[in-house]
Every structure is written in structure tokens, then in C-alpha cells.
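Q: I'm writing up a methods section and want to include an example of the input and output format. Could you take the sequence below and give the corresponding predicted C-alpha cells, formatted cleanly so I can copy it straight into the document?
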Amino acid sequence: MAVNSSRNRKATAAGKTARPVLKAARDEPATGLDKLIHERTRLALVSALAANSSMTFNELKTVLQITDGNLSVHARKLEDAGYLECSKGFDGRLPRTEYKLSQSGRAALQRYVTHMEALISAVKRSG
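A: Here is the clean output for your methods example:
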């Protein structure tokens, strides 16, 4: 998807070479980002789990400062995609739900971070 701004069209028309389109944007546009991870709450959830071996539901809720329902919905989407592993049990008589990032989730986060780094580098080079 090439971006051709008004300034680039004028430069080309004047016989000057237009600025090259961002390589990262052309090769892997932002629309190529993993939309499942790109959503703010899910990115925060995956990032928290990447920094910890596992976290309980209540720990995640506190760290992310979100409601029970919001955490449940986002965690379920990530779990359905195979990015999270969820285990349920009891701590005494209290229910305990624990999450950890799966290998697939770690790989997806690494791809996402690599993609974002490429986009950032391309923007810095073009500026």
C-alpha cells in the first residue's frame, strides 16, 4: 500500500525524486499488526504475563486496573487464541484462577514487538 502525499506528487512533478515510502509501512503495513494483541488492554495483559511467570486473576485485575468482567472477556479472547494458559483451583476454600503466557503467546508478542520496532525505526529514518 503506497502512500503518495501531495508533497511527494509535487516533488515528482517538478522532476525531483519523491521521498521513499516507509519500507516497514510498505512491506508490513500497520494493518498487519496482530489485532488481538494490539488492543490496549490485551497488550497490557500479555505484557504483564511476559514479565511474570504467572499471575492470578486478582493480581492482573489490580495491575491493569480493570473490572472483573473486562479482564474475563480479554483473557478469554487470548485464551481462545492459544496465547494464554488458564488454570483454576482453590487456595484453601477460595477459588484461584491463574494465567500464564503460552509459548504461542510469547511468540506472538515477540512478533508484535519486532513489527512495532520496525515501524518506529522506519519513522525515525524518514523524519
